[in-house]
Amino acid sequence: MRESHFWALIQDEFGSANAGVIASSLELPGLNATAQDALAKGIDPRTVWAAVCDLHDIPLHQRLGKDIEPRDTGAL
What we know:
By secondary structure, the chain is mostly helical. It has helices spanning 3-14, 16-25, 35-40, 45-55, and strands at 27-28, 33-34.
């Protein structure tokens, strides 16, 4: 997972206003760092996202982000 995908997931889950606050202020269990600090230390964004999800009890089916409907291109 790229860091940009991490930010997209956290914004999808918590909203753009809350994502930054959550990432910068809540210490993640097991990482002993905030999400922002963990990413800055080079911890894999997938690991950081899993820690955020665990902290907030986000169900497994919801951890991959919002379902996006495919575009209708008119092609069959």
